């Protein structure tokens, strides 16, 4: 029974920690960084960032970017479609503006068009494998509900663990008190032996 309870407790903690990790990395982390979470859909960044990877970006000043940095940028300025590739060169265009040449880690050739500063959505802060598949299924409204449900679950689980520990402590105190009372009372007093009765002789029948 104790082994089963211990196993269930360990499993519950593992699930709880996984939930905390998902919330922290996929929802809370991007908000704290002031960035966004994206899902890698293609294999252009294999093997380090395979499809399904969640990438979280943070705002960055263009002057801080250099060769080797991974950025998420708009394919066309002002359009929602984005791609996450690595900077392989930094230069200037005909107007003297800074531009970045990018390439996917799995691609042999650089991307055909240079990336302008206004297209950059952020620099890669961290990435989490597989979690991007979950992120792709959630709309912004869904993410709000996930955060709320996760917070309620964490509070509920914490209260359940607190009540369980309190109950176990009360039960342990009762058992210790019962054992102490039994020790103080001492062994049971043996009862006094009853009187020993002599056998009554049988009466002989006398014939007149």
UniProtKB/TrEMBL annotation:
Low complexity: bias regions: 199-208
Disordered: annotated span: 176-208
Membrane-crossing segments per the record: 144-166
Signal sequence, renumbered to the chain: none
Protein name: Signal peptidase I
EC number(s) reported in the record: 3.4.21.89
Keywords linked to the UniProt accession: Membrane, Transmembrane, Transmembrane helix
